[in-house]
Design a protein that fits this description.
The protein is built from 5 helices and 35 strands. The strands form 9 sheets. Strands 1, 31, 32, 33, 34 and 35 form a 6-stranded mixed sheet that branches. Strands 26-27-28-29-30 form a 5-stranded antiparallel sheet, covered by helices on one side. By secondary structure, it is mainly beta.
Length: 457
């Protein structure tokens, strides 16, 4: 397959039946322990996926590597089970690293399975472009009729009917639509609540704004609106919830993200480029730190790590970046920020054109379209010159989902081309491509239409 194509509030439920694992406590020893890793991920079930020497493993809440970095592919734990790849073979392991006996699925179907839900044993299945669920014997129990689905969480699964501008709702394990498909977006339930989006419509079409326009709220399992649809939204990653542990993700006018609790207390200021929900007492964060200028280049260091509920950070330096400095109307503008490659490419880091499962934007193509429409700014120069058209951009999706090296393969004009590259470069992390069951670097091509509502006379 070819790869083509500011506040969200939290709420907790004291009646939750599951006892979460012990929380992470950020100490000097924890900070020291994580410095050896090249890449980190969010904690799930008390473990976080980490990367060292090109291989994946898991560390515990103390930062200790309890499941060695021996895997060529690895995913987050879900209900005590994680999908890993060892010697090209797909396996599922428990929190102790022991191989879990697999359901008797065909090998091709097993490779399509990214997560095994031990809570109800249902596995996402895709047939002819539609999604449904199968049981542990591979029998379809919920027909493949949805355009997009999330795994079951707290007995319900978010599902979408219709492509791009379809509507979301929730089904139970019997396939019954218990909350109607009427929302423009939805995320899985967490502690009895789920975040959903409800846009405004005119003549049957959604009203979209260039600037962020808050239309997100929170519902309970009965579909009752708990928080009205008038808050800004931070895009999640995969099926992570928008809120957790009473902590919400907020964003400022520069689109940097931070954390605030329901009492209005700021836990961490808006400084992060990527901020994920709290889990096991900490949240995964990633940001670029400005170092200064060298000639016409601005230099940055890239950090990722964790922040706890007190705002204490545990960070790892993961690389360096630089951008080109321009001045416009006396203002300093930094553009074309790209990673500085100080390493020698290896066979493991080969970039693939053809993969088994293509890389994808968080939430799918429909979410990517919405994200581009929200972030794209029509260049003043292009507007004044009456320039419009379709730009084609090709880029690399790294194994951790980072967007690298966007290039223009079909140009419209210099200003429009530059804006297209800026939008693509600033996308959130994607779900990486897979080849032979392993996460790999891959090329992806997308097109962006720049359309003037009024052409210049």
């Amino acid at each position: 397959m070819l790869g083509t194509s500011t506040i969200s509030f939290a709420q907790t439920n004291s009646n939750s039946v599951e006892s979460p694992p012990q929380d992470v406590v950020i100490t000097p020893s924890f900070i020291s322990n994580i410095q050896k890793y090249k890449s980190l991920e969010s904690f799930h079930d008390g473990l976080a996926c980490v990367k060292r020497n090109g291989k994946y493993g898991y560390m515990n809440i103390k930062g200790e590597e309890v499941i060695p970095c021996n895997f060529t592919g690895a995913d987050a734990y879900i209900n005590g089970v994680a999908r890993v790849v060892l010697n090209g073979k797909v396996q599922f392991i428990d929190v102790n690293g022991n191989v879990v006996p697999l359901p008797s699925l065909p090998s091709t179907q097993l490779e399509e399975t990214t997560r095994l839900r031990s809570s109800n044993g249902l596995i996402i299945k895709k047939v002819n472009g539609k999604y449904g669920f199968v049981n542990e014997k591979g029998k379809i129990v919920i027909p493949c009729k949805y355009d997009e689905v999330y795994d079951f969480s707290e007995g319900l699964a978010a599902v979408r009917k219709g492509d791009y501008w379809g509507f979301w709702g929730f089904i139970n394990s019997k396939g019954e639509e218990v909350i109607p498909c009427k929302y423009d977006n939805a995320k899985p339930f967490k502690n009895g609540y789920a975040a959903v989006e409800q846009l405004e419509y005119e003549d049957g079409e959604p009203i979209l704004s260039v600037e962020p326009d808050p239309h997100w709220g929170v519902i309970d399992k009965n579909g009752k609106v708990i928080i009205p649809f008038n808050y800004d939204f931070h895009y999640g990653f995969d099926d992570e919830p928008f809120f957790s542990d009473g902590i919400a993700i907020m964003s400022d006018s520069t689109e940097k993200k931070g954390y605030i609790n329901l009492d209005g207390k700021i836990i961490a200021p808006c400084k992060y480029d990527i901020a994920r929900p709290f889990s096991n007492g900490v949240a995964y964060v990633c940001f670029d730190k400005y170092l200064g200028d060298r000639g016409n280049k601005a230099r940055f260091e890239n950090y990722e790590g964790y922040v706890d509920k007190n705002g204490t950070e545990a960070l790892v330096k993961c690389g360096e970046k630089e951008g080109t400095i321009h001045y416009k109307f006396g203002m300093k503008i930094i553009e074309d920020i790209e990673e500085i490659d100080n390493t020698t490419a290896t066979t493991e880091e080969e970039v693939f054109e053809v993969v088994d499962y293509v890389a994808s934007f968080p939430g799918g193509d429909g979410e990517m379209i919405k994200w581009i429409q929200q972030k794209m700014k029509y260049p003043t120069e292009a507007e004044e010159n009456g320039e419009s058209g379709r730009v084609v951009v090709k880029f690399i999706v790294d194994v951790d989902g980072t967007i690298l090296n966007p290039i223009i393969t079909k140009s419209v004009s210099p200003s429009i081309d530059k804006e297209a590259k800026r939008v693509v470069r600033n996308m959130p992390k994607w779900t990486p491509a897979r080849k032979n069951g392993v996460r790999v670097k891959s090329y992806y091509t997308t097109s962006i239409n720049f359309i003037l509502t009024k052409q210049k006379n």
